[in-house]
Amino acid sequence: MCHSSDEPGQGPGDEVVEAVAELRDDASADLLTGWCAERGIRVLPMAAGALLTAEWQRLLDAFGARASDWSRPQTLPVPTELRTVVRSVTVVAPPSPHSPGH
User: Fold this and answer.
1) Does position 102 have pLDDT exceeding 90, yes or no?
2) Mind listing the pLDDT tens digit for each residue in 21-41?
3) What is the DSSP string of 12-64?
């Protein structure tokens, strides 16, 4: 889900997006939560993972991804330091490069 801002001049990278991080079996979200907090990503733990919320560009930068494909959903690479606990990270709805007002 995207949350557009009404501020002029903002591009798709400034839109707030949500991603779902699927945890590995019996993994705790603690490592993920700390890692995300250090990068300005908000985390809401869920039963089998976590909901991550951040500006699109911040999320891409944190996960070492590029916005070359605007398809939905988009899978982000799992950083090495999270691979023991995170199985996958999927952006539910990346921003559209042609969002109204952008």
Assistant:
1) no
2) 999 998 999 999 999 999 999
3) GGGSEEEEEEEEPTT--SHHHHHHHHHTT-EEEEETTEEEEEEEHHHHHHHHT
Residue of 65, 50, 46, 48 lying closest to 19 (CA atoms): 50
Residues composing the chain: 102
CA distance 66 to 28: 28
- Own/partner contacts of 24-31, CB < 8 Å, gap of 24 or more, are 24/84, 24/85, 24/86, 24/87, 27/84, 27/85, 27/86, 28/85, 29/85, 31/81, 31/82, 31/84, 31/85
Which range has highest mean pLDDT (65-69, 70-74, 81-85)?
81-85
